[in-house]
Amino acid sequence: MRPSLALVFTLLATPILAQDRIPSHCIALALADPTVVPVALNEGLEDGSVLIRYIDHASFAIVTHDGTVAVTDYTGYLGTQDVVPDIVTMNNAHSTHWTAAPDLRIPHVLEGWGPAGAPADHRLDLGSMLIRNVPTDTRGPFGEGARKDGNSIFIFEAGGLCIGHLGHLHQIPSDAQYAAIGRLDVVMVPVDGGYTLRLSDMAGVVRRLRSSVVIPMHWFSEESLQSFLTEMSTEFDVVETGGAQIALSLRDLPTAPTILVLDPVYLD
């Protein structure tokens, strides 16, 4: 493990203090036992840090210092703990990335697909966290049924970090989409190698994004995960954390691009 990562592997977590914002600092340049969850996800989380907890498949909890909780690709089940996120995002290219019946207590449910003929367009500012989306196209598992703007890449800006979740990505982003995404310090990447992009294409997306931290997700077998790690190992440090969550801050990002492997665990 690199020295710069030692401070990063703090296994604890929620939103930080509200602050004055430019429209989006992320696009300014472009235009604890990990199985034990505290009662409050932000318990012990330092100001300026963000907790990322891998829950299952493509679902992560992103937690700020003040306790704001966002959950990605929300399916309706997070575990036996009664955790009510402030925001959930969903993509409906596959049933394991959304639910038709989200918990009614959740204040903000952001769908990654828009009404017929229109893309989703989200920009939600909660003070300690800004959430926005960049639409991408989808298609069926064999290339059939193309749907324009059927997926959203969601970007979470918190603690000075730009955190991206690629969702059920089926296309290599265009130059305009990369510009809209902007800087991503941390990115969650599907590495199944088939239902989303081929691994070689996904590796190209990761290279183009140039994120400091890459977190693999959405693998159906250890084989596809290991294939992705092998593909990237000459360009990225690979750290298998052995845990489900990690606290990150802008000041403690690794100096070399790093793939962090988290093991999903429900909030039980």
Number of domains: 1
CATH architecture classification name: 4-Layer Sandwich
Percent helix range: 10-25%
The biggest beta sheet is recorded as:
8 strands, mixed
Could you describe the 3D structure shown?
- The protein is globular.
- β7 and β8 form a beta hairpin.
- The strands form 2 sheets. An 8-stranded mixed β-sheet has the order 6-7-8-9-10-11-14-12, with helices on one face. The protein has a 6-stranded mixed β-sheet with strand order 5-4-3-2-1-13, with no helix packed on it.
- It has one domain: 4-Layer Sandwich (Metallo-beta-lactamase, Chain A).
- 12% of the residues lie in helices and 29% in strands.
- The chain has 268 residues and is α/β, with parallel strands linked by helices.
- Mean pLDDT is 86; it is low at 1-19 and 29-39.
- The chain is built from 4 helices and 14 strands.
Short description:
This protein has 268 residues and is of the alpha/beta class. The chain has helices at residues 3-6, 175-181, 199-209, 222-232, and strands at residues 49-56, 59-63, 69-71, 87-90, 108-111, 123-125, 129-138, 147-158, 161-165, 186-190, 213-217, 237-240, 245-249, 258-261.
Element layout with pairings:
Blueprint lengths: L2 H4 L42 E8 L2 E5 L5 E3 L15 E4 L17 E4 L11 E3 L3 E10 L8 E12 L2 E5 L9 H7 L4 E5 L8 H11 L3 E5 L4 H11 L4 E4 L4 E5 L8 E4 L7
Parallel strand pairs: 3-4, 4-5, 9-10, 10-11, 11-14, 12-14
Antiparallel strand pairs: 1-2, 1-13, 2-3, 6-7, 7-8, 8-9
